[in-house]
Structures are given as structure tokens and as C-alpha cells.
Specification:
The structure holds 2 protein chains of 2 kinds. By secondary structure, chain A is of the alpha/beta class. Chain A is built from 7 helices and 7 strands. A 4-stranded mixed β-sheet of chain A has the order 2-3-5-6, sandwiched between helices. A two-stranded parallel sheet of chain A has the order 1-4. Chain A is globular, with a radius of gyration of 17 Å. By secondary structure, chain B is an alpha/beta fold. The relative contact order of chain B is 0.12. Classes of the chains: A alpha/beta, B alpha/beta. The structure holds zinc ion.
């Protein structure tokens, strides 16, 4: 595990990076500690043509159906000047309420992909539960694949490739279950996720009266 | 996430595959059966001479005759009857008279049957001996052959046959010798034996050795279980009386007859029966001058010549694919149809698999393992694992 700010190696339960002092509190003091709504796709830079974003949304929908625990949020826009893309991703995962039909998703299983077309920077941050299935070499390969597309200006292709790659990885690591069984296990839409020991994220989101902005640095 | 109503379930796909395979290959089997039926059920009219032929013919009728094994199991068969007839009475059957009655070959019912049937590859056959497994016949065995009683049509230097089987074949070859102008001597060797030594071959095939009852005889060197390696030697007069393709076809038919059964003794038996029939046929082409009146003086008679002696392994019938394709066009056609059908089934199976995989993707979800995560850097859900780069 590395520090997202200075890349120093970190022990499992380090509260603060021994190299640079980076921690969540430092991020929150910069971006705030309120909950934000995480949309599947936020394209503030208007970098994706309508058809591309439509196709991408379809693919993301299919992806979420296949992996009920997992979600991916894509943010395309200018990043806060003092933060790198992973730091922003980390903050969003720790403060975001993912907007989905199913509320069974926990943020440990979340992924945030941040792209800044103007600065030509991009990053990818994942929750704790995905660290095992996305080890460093895998992340590196994903990064190279995306970079290849992005260097040619193919933003949509880079994101579609990312989704396709993640699908293959999660299918390899996951246990297939029949969809019916899955629906029986998961709570119905009318149920309270707390009854099933699921994430209190939504609850927190409501109780904390969050901002409705999809762009963290506006808040 | 419900199953698409038009998706065929996988079991029905399997059934359809089996059905297609059956549909493709069943006509093949039927054609083969018909060929076999042609062979064993010659048609002839119920005229008087034909009746006579039927009564006399069984020992020569390839396929009509029960095999040795069958004969042993059921003693009260035509073989016993024949045995009695040959031992006690001179045979009634006169090939010359028969041939005179009808100008075409169909005068001999069993021959007509054999002639009509294309050479059929047998369904089962033993493994051919590999070239490196072949051993030359020992000098002792060659000597045994040369010292073998002159009037014995069956030479078995390495005792490949049981006494009963040898006797059975002796009776058959003896009967053939009494009827035919071209008697037949058979040398039986072991499966892996070959006779390559030219000196030994010359001695064995010499005209002095190969005569039975004062008539020059045809010589067959037959490795047990390897009918395709059998070598046939004929007196030059006989060899030149018919064309090479005719002789080649004759030998191929003998091999084909032998290959229809798997028991090596039955193979030899069927080979000899078929060869006997073919020798009768060759005999019809012999010039009349050579006829029994003045047999060639043995001292000056040239040695036997091997059938198809232009080749490396003359009497060997090689079942090379192209030869097979030409001679057995029906089988070849069936193969082509079968291969096309198989290709179709394969493509269809791939598409079914693809559909079933797509359905699997639609109807299944994948659950990732739960992990006990230790938070770091104060993050409740993420410690900032990931990557960042620029392009
Ligand atoms: Zn650091």
C-alpha cells in the first residue's frame, strides 16, 4: 500500500503518512467532510459526445447488474488544483453516496475514476474491499491500457476498456450466483439496509443533509 | 434477468446434435450393409446347371461358406458334408463345363457375386505390423519350406496354424487343386515375418518347388494377420494371360475379403477362398495350348513371377487415402458429406455455446469475496489505493 500523495509505502493501519503527513483529515479540511452524491457519470468538461456517454452509461448499468456489490463513478472535469486524481478519488469514496437503484452497495466496493482532460491527468481510486482483486500490477496494466486510448484522444474507448477489463477481473475472482438467488438475498427496495447489516451510508447521507452537488470542489 | 423465451435449452441442443450425426452416418452404414448383402446373396436362376453349381460350389463361395470358427462351433454344416464328399467321392463340379454353358462370368454364381461387389474396407482390422518390427524368415524356416513335402499345398514352417485349421485349409486347397488348372500353394508365416533374401525367395518360388499334381502352381506367401502384406506368385503363363490391373484388383479383393473379419485364421481362410475364385477366373484366360495335355517340363520352366512385380512390394495392397477415394467413391462421398455436416454442427455448437454464455452472463451475478479491511490514513472506505498518471 502506498500513500496516494507521496507514494511512500504504508503499513496496514497507518493513521498518517510517515513521509508527508497525508491523511483523510487533511483532505477533509480542504474539501469538507460533508456527504456528496456520486453519480455514475459526471462530465463537467463536456468531453464525451452524447452517443458515447449514452453507450458508456449502458455499459455501466450492465456492469453494476453483474456485480451487485461493486460500483464505479466516473468524474470528468477539472480537478482541485492542489489535489492529485487519486486523492480526490479517495475523498469521494469516503464521502460519496453512490446514486443507484440498489442501495446494497457499500463504499468499500466503490471505484472512482477521475479524468481532467485539460490537464491531461487521470486517476483511479478503489475501496478497501477491492484492493485484493486489484493489486498493483493489475492497476498498472489498467493504467497503461487507458493511457494508450487517452493519448489518441479516445476518451470513451479508454473508459469502455476500463469497464471491460474490470468485468473480466471481477468475474475471475467472483463466485457466480443465479440472479434470482441474489435478489432473494438482497433486501427489497422497501427494506431498510440497516436490517441487513449493510452500509449506513445512505442513512448518513440523509441525516447529514448533504449538498446535492455532484462536484466536490463546489462545496 | 429472466431467460429469453427463444433460447433453446442445452439438452435439446445435444439431442439435435446426435440426431444430425445419425442422419449423416446412418445412410453410410446402410450402404455398407447392402454391399455386404450383395456379397453373400448372389442371385441366380433356378435352372438345372445352376442347381448343380450351388451344390458343388460352397467350398469356393466366398462369404457363403461359414468361417472356420463357425464351422467348428457347428459341426453339422456344409463343411462336414464337403469333407465327406472330398474324401469319399470324386468331385462332381466341372468348371470347364460350367464355363462353356454361359459365356459370361456369371455362370459361376459365387464369382458373379464377388465380382459385383466393390472391394469394401472392413470395419475392424488388426494393427498392421510396423516396418521396424518385420523380421526376416530364419534360414531354418526357409530350409523347412524347401524341404516341405512336395504334394502338400499348405506350408506352415513356423507352425502358425493349429492342426485342425491346417487340415481344413489343406482340404480346401486340395479340392482347389483337383478342380483348377492353377493349383495354389500357400506358405504361412508369422505376423512379423518377411522374406527379403533374394536367394531364399528364388529357391522358394522356383518352378520345381511349386507344382502340385504335375501342374505348375500359384504360390502365396501369407503373413498371419497381415493379409495386405501377402505376396502372390504366378507361373509366367498365367501372369501374362491377364492384365496387371486385373491381377492387382484380384489381390485387392482377396485382401478386402480377409479384412472383413478380425480373426487371423478366418482372414487366411477368406483370403484363400477369394484367391481360389480369382485363380479360376485367371484360368479362363489361359491359352488353350498350355492346357493339361502337355504341361511344361519342370526343369526348364521359368521360376514364378510375382504379381505386380514392377513394384517394391508388389502384392501389397496399400490403403492410401487417394486410392481409397478413387476406388470407393461412395464412401468418399459419405466422408465429404459427413465432414461438411460435422463442420456445420461445430459452428452451430459454437453459436449455441456463445448464446448460452450470454444467457449465463444475463442470468448470473458475481459476488466478490468479503474482506476485513483495516482502515488507513483515516479513510473509512478507501485508503487511496489506485493509480494516477497523465497522458
Ligand atoms: Zn505520503
Amino acid at each position: 500500500m502506498k500513500c496516494p500523495h507521496c507514494q511512500s509505502l504504508l503499513a496496514a493501519n497507518t493513521a498518517r503518512c510517515p513521509g508527508c503527513g497525508f491523511c483523510e483529515q487533511a483532505l477533509s479540511s480542504y474539501l469538507g467532510d460533508q456527504w456528496v452524491r456520486l453519480e455514475r457519470l459526471t462530465d463537467r468538461a463536456h468531453a464525451l459526445p452524447m452517443a458515447d456517454s449514452q453507450r458508456l452509461l449502458h455499459q455501466m448499468d450492465a456492469f453494476e447488474r453483474q456485480f451487485p456489490q461493486v460500483f464505479l463513478a466516473i468524474y470528468i472535469g477539472s480537478l482541485p488544483p492542489l489535489l492529485n486524481p487519486v486523492e480526490l478519488g479517495m475523498w469521494l469514496l469516503n464521502h460519496g453516496a453512490f446514486s443507484t437503484h440498489q442501495f446494497a452497495k457499500r463504499n468499500e466496493y466503490g471505484m472512482v475514476c477521475t479524468l481532467d482532460p485539460a490537464a491531461q491527468r487521470f486517476g483511479f481510486a478503489v475501496g478497501y474491499a477491492l484492493e485484493k482483486v486489484l493489486p498493483e500490477p493489475t492497476l498498472e496494466r489498467i493504467s497503461l491500457e487507458m493511457k494508450e486510448h487517452l493519448a489518441q484522444g479516445h476518451l470513451a474507448a479508454a473508459l469502455e476498456g476500463l469497464l471491460a477489463r474490470l468485468e473480466r477481473i471481477y468475474r475471475r475472482h467472483g463466485q457466480p450466483q443465479s440472479a434470482q438467488l441474489e435478489e432473494a438475498i438482497l433486501p427489497g427496495r422497501a427494506g431498510n439496509p440497516r436490517d441487513f447489516g449493510l452500509t449506513p451510508l445512505r442513512q448518513g447521507h440523509q441525516s447529514k443533509a448533504p449538498t446535492e452537488t455532484s462536484s466536490p470542489h463546489h462545496s | 434477468m429472466s431467460r429469453h423465451p427463444y433460447d433453446p435449452p442445452v439438452p435439446s441442443a445435444l439431442v439435435l446434435t446426435m440426431g444430425l450425426l445419425l442422419a449423416v452416418f446412418h445412410p453410410l452404414a446402410t450402404a455398407q450393409d447392402l454391399e455386404d448383402a450383395d456379397l453373400t446373396l448372389p442371385e441366380w436362376d433356378a435352372s438345372e446347371w445352376r442347381q448343380q453349381a450351388i451344390e458343388a460350389a460352397p467350398p469356393l463361395a466366398g462369404g457363403l461358406l461359414p468361417s472356420l470358427g463357425e464351422a467348428a462351433a457347428a459341426p453339422a454344416t456344409v463343411n462336414d458334408e464337403l469333407q465327406l464328399r472330398f474324401q469319399d467321392a470324386p468331385p462332381q463340379f466341372d468348371i470347364e463345363a460350367l464355363s462353356a454353358q454361359l459365356s459370361d462370368g456369371r455362370a459361376i454364381p459365387w464369382f458373379a457375386a464377388v465380382d459385383d461387389a466393390p472391394a469394401a474396407a472392413s470395419a475392424t482390422q488388426s494393427e498392421p505390423a510396423l516396418a521396424i518390427e518385420l523380421r526376416d524368415l530364419t534360414p531354418e524356416a526357409v530350409e523347412t519350406i524347401l524341404q516341405w513335402p512336395k504334394n502338400d499345398p499348405l506350408v506352415d514352417p513356423t507352425a502358425e496354424l493349429s492342426e485342425m485349421e491346417a487340415d481344413e485349409l489343406r482340404r480346401f486347397l486340395g479340392y482347389h487343386a483337383t478342380q483348377a488348372r492353377l493349383p495354389l500353394r500357400a506358405i504361412v508365416t508369422g505376423k512379423n515375418h518377411q522374406l527379403k533374401d533374394p536367394a531364399a525367395l528364388t529357391a522358394i518360388t522356383s518352378a520345381e518347388t511349386n507344382q502340385l499334381g504335375g501342374k505348375p502352381a500359384a504360390l502365396l506367401i501369407y503373413p498371419m494377420g497381415e493379409p495386405w502384406r501377402a505376396r502372390l506368385f504366378l507361373p509366367p503363363t498365367a501372369l501374362h494371360a491377364v492384365s496387371q490391373p486385373f491381377l492387382r484388383e484380384a489381390v485387392e479383393d482377396c485382401v478386402a475379403a480377409a479384412r472383413r473379419t478380425t480373426r487371423v485364421e478366418s482372414q487366411l481362410h477368406d483370403y484363400l477362398v477369394q484367391l481360389s475364385v480369382r485363380l479360376f477366373w485367371i484360368e479362363k484366360h489361359l491359352p488353350p495350348v498350355v492346357q493339361s495335355a502337355s504341361p511344361e517340363p519342370i526343369e526348364i520352366a521359368p521360376p514364378l513371377a510375382e504379381v505386380g512385380s514392377g513394384d517394391e512390394r508388389p502384392a501389397t495392397v496399400t490403403f492410401v487415402p487417394w486410392n481409397f477415394l478413387v476406388t470407393q467413391w461412395r464412401t468418399a462421398l459419405a466422408w465429404v458429406i459427413g465432414l461438411l455436416a460435422a463442420a456445420g454442427i461445430l459452428m452451430w455448437a459454437i453459436s449455441v455455446r456463445r448464446r448460452s454464455r450470454a444467457r449465463h452472463l444475463r442470468t448470473h451475478v458475481w459476488m466478490l469475496p468479503e474482506v476485513d479491511s483495516t482502515p488507513r490514513l483515516g479513510g473509512a472506505f478507501s485508503g487511496g489505493a489506485g493509480f494516477q498518471t497523465s497522458w
